[in-house]
Design goal:
Number of helices: 23
Largest sheet: 7 strands, mixed
Distance between the termini: 50 Å
Number of strands: 28
Helix content: 25-40%
Shape: flat
Low-confidence stretches: 210-220, 455-463, 507-543
Structural class: alpha/beta
Oligomer: single chain
Radius of gyration: 31 Å
Mean pLDDT: 87
């Protein structure tokens, strides 16, 4: 560990204010006479990690007290190599600013409330280096204790610009993070006042070796993944002539898909009715699936010269298995000049290219792509997603991602003319830094689901920074800085992709759509637009609101407001100028005219009442998003006639057609009360107008928040 005064010298050279002080060795305290009282005495040495816990720091001393306290420290057993004596900084708001090298994402900046509050409140925010000034201000604004920075209850705020400058000096482009052999670096506390900042304490732990998961994991030259998704022909290695196995299952999938196909078998001329070749060396294909035991995979792949892409389904590699087998497999792929997908993955799904790893036939070709480290989860997303109306352009499972990585695929998909939105399911990105770069550059909306975040991945650390940086918080920072949407469930992953598919071509509007306060949907805390009335221009048209929620039941409306608030979405107020028209429609009798707006929807109300109410409101104020909800159960309590519900769906579709710059979303509450097939018909009616359907308000809120965050356009 570098001594504190040496760490502070690095700060001083970078332009960060530090207290004036002197270094004392051999108990020669004569230079202390030049310092202004009160003074701070600190011992330093390789065995002193946390000075307060070791009794190695004393505040508020006079010059005469300093040698006495130093002698007392030595007598109490403090293993000091020397002492640092500094002028004590005046009081202010104590902050922590730190850097740590994450093995997956490289240098990460932490900022938050510091001093004694660091471990007590754990009120900190993260950013992947290099941060921008906008990132710095977002990090400070996200702190629960941020009001103390801007002034609270008559107390003045601090010089926030000086704090931002400090964050940029440490973690911005050209910052200190680029010049350190970074293990951990921490300034705690930084004292912030009205007049600036001063770094009172600093700790630097260099790292001799930095993993390639950080700064070195940048994207290389792009690969054309076209033949991966749309191969001329496919080979399957590992199918049996005597005992059906996974290889045989994939042969059946590909036979049903109708793609040109060969089996790889050392002896047979055909397997399951598919012509066979003895090895991949003589297979004229673009894509080969390998489903043999892990010990044999490298030999099979080594013979794949001339095959652009090889996918290894087999498991038993990597950290959880035998890492030497994975290294041998990658070497075999490189020797053959082929790119390797996996190992431990299910393969590729692409209706356009007749590529599949799921049974039951293929759905329609669409514009939604998926990259997943789990083949099983990807299969579920495909089948459930298609049942809900998703249509996929490309799906790739990457398993261990030993060669082809999520970042590479994301970069290619971002430029793919067939893809308009991308979903990712990741556990260990393998190339976190490159993933960050790919997400930041992606021109299409991206939704991200991460497995294993609850484990925290927290490391034993010598600094507070190291202890406070965890896997879950890094993923959140990644989403905040790149604009990706981070969700917490498979259902929300599907729901957000459905929103992107339905509304991707609609304008987000001048204010960027729905107002979202946080990177992770469902994180709560709304910073939305002011709830007061917007100004009315000469035309009588009021400026854009937030999100409009409209449907039956006061209780459901209250719960809807709660759901959207948790998702960080603002419900803009209704324009005063529209209230007369709404009353003219018979609304507001027995309920207030507010957002959410209570409108009767059922077999006895007019099917177009919601349509007319929405059109009346948006004539006076535009809303980026309108969420209509309906109680499906109410249509079937006194019978099973579905036509009134279908008429409502048609009216809502007409409203969407009439409002091309508004994103309409439908929530079919209590849909299980409908007879079989009714929900499917409702979904088909509104899907024709580009309206996504959700069964809960919570799922819709997550999707609308994602749309606003990505500025879907």
């Amino acid at each position: 560990m570098v001594a504190e005064h040496e760490a502070k010298e690095l700060l001083r050279e970078a332009g960060v204010p530090v207290p004036r002080g002197v270094v004392v060795r051999d108990m020669d305290f004569a230079p202390v006479a030049e310092l202004r009282e009160p003074l701070v005495l600190k011992a330093y040495g390789p065995e002193i990690v946390h000075k307060s816990e070791a009794g190695a720091v004393v505040l508020g001393l006079s010059r005469a007290d300093v040698p006495i306290e130093a002698a007392r420290m030595l007598a109490s057993g403090v293993a000091a190599e020397g002492f640092l004596v500094e002028e004590q900084a005046p009081g202010g708001v104590e902050l922590i600013v730190g850097l740590v090298h994450d093995p997956g994402f490289g240098p990460v900046l932490l900022a938050g409330l510091g001093g004694v509050w660091t471990e007590t409140l754990r009120d900190t925010a993260l950013g992947l280096c290099p941060i921008s000034e906008g990132d710095a201000r977002r990090m400070l604004g996200s702190l629960r204790g941020s009001p103390v920075l801007y002034g609270l209850r008559g107390r003045p705020g601090v010089d926030v610009d000086a704090v931002v400058k400090l964050l940029m000096t440490v973690g911005g482009s050209g910052g200190l993070w680029e010049r350190l052999e970074l293990g951990e670096f921490e300034i705690n506390p930084v004292i912030a006042t009205e007049s600036g900042v001063v770094a009172v304490d600093a700790r630097y732990l260099p790292a001799a070796h930095v993993s390639n998961g950080g700064q070195d994991g940048v994207l290389g030259e792009p690969t054309d993944f076209g033949p991966l998704f749309e191969p001329r022909a496919v080979a399957v290695a590992g199918a049996s002539t005597t005992r059906p196995n996974f290889g045989n299952m994939f042969l059946e999938f590909y036979k049903a898909a109708g793609i040109p196909l060969v089996a790889v078998h050392p002896e047979a001329r055909e397997v399951s009715g598919v012509p066979a070749v003895p090895s991949l060396a003589v297979a004229d294909v673009d894509y080969a699936l390998v489903a043999v035991p892990a010990e044999r995979c490298a030999q099979v792949v080594r013979e794949a010269s001339g095959v652009p892409y090889v996918q290894v389904m087999s498991g038993g590699f990597g950290e959880a298995g035998r890492p030497e087998l994975e290294r041998e497999l990658v070497a075999a792929a490189r020797a053959a000049g082929t790119r390797l997908l996996g190992p431990n993955c299910m393969g590729v799904y692409c209706p356009r290219g007749r590529q599949t790893f799921v049974g039951g036939g293929m759905g329609p070709a669409g514009t939604v792509a998926l990259i997943s480290q789990s083949g099983g989860l990807a299969g579920e997303v495909i089948k459930v997603g298609e049942r809900r109306g998703l249509a996929f352009s490309r799906v790739a499972t990457v398993g261990n991602a030993a060669d082809v990585t999520p970042a590479e695929l994301l970069r290619w998909l971002s430029a793919d003319s067939e893809t308009r939105a991308v979903g990712l399911y990741l556990e260990d990105p393998r190339d976190g830094r490159a993933l960050y770069e790919a997400l930041a550059a992606a021109p299409v909306p991206v939704v991200l689901l991460v497995g294993g975040r609850s484990a925290q991945g927290q490391r034993a650390a010598a600094s507070h920074t190291g202890g406070l940086v965890s896997d879950g918080r890094i993923w959140q920072a990644l989403a905040d800085q790149t604009g990706a949407t981070l969700v917490t469930s498979q259902d929300d992953l599907i729901g957000v992709l459905a929103f992107f598919q339905a509304h991707g071509a609609r304008l987000a509007g001048p204010d960027g759509g729905a107002v979202v306060s946080g990177g992770q949907t469902g994180s709560g805390g709304t910073q939305g637009i002011p709830q007061g009335e917007a100004a009315v221009g000469e035309t009588g048209f009021e400026s854009r609101g937030g999100t409009l929620v409209i449907g039956p039941s006061g209780g459901a409306s209250v719960l809807a407001a709660d759901a959207f608030d948790r998702a960080g979405v603002s419900l803009g107020p209704l324009p005063d100028s529209a209230l007369g028209e709404l009353r003219g429609l018979g609304l507001g009798a027995g309920s207030s005219l507010a957002n959410p707006l209570e409108v009767p929807v059922g077999p006895r109300s007019g099917p177009d009442l919601v349509q007319r109410a929405v059109e009346a409101i948006v004539r006076h104020r535009s809303y980026p998003d309108v969420v209509a909800h309906v109680n499906v159960q109410s249509f079937f309590t006194y019978g099973t006639r579905a036509e009134p519900l279908f008429e409502y769906a048609r009216a809502l579709a007409a409203a969407q057609d009439a409002l091309p710059e508004t994103r309409v979303t439908l929530v079919t509450r209590n849909g299980e009360c409908a007879p079989p097939g009714v929900e499917d018909e409702v979904r088909a009616i509104v899907a024709a107008a580009g309206i996504p359907v959700y069964r809960t308000m919570e799922a819709a809120a997550v999707a609308v928040a994602a749309g606003g965050r990505n500025g879907t356009a």
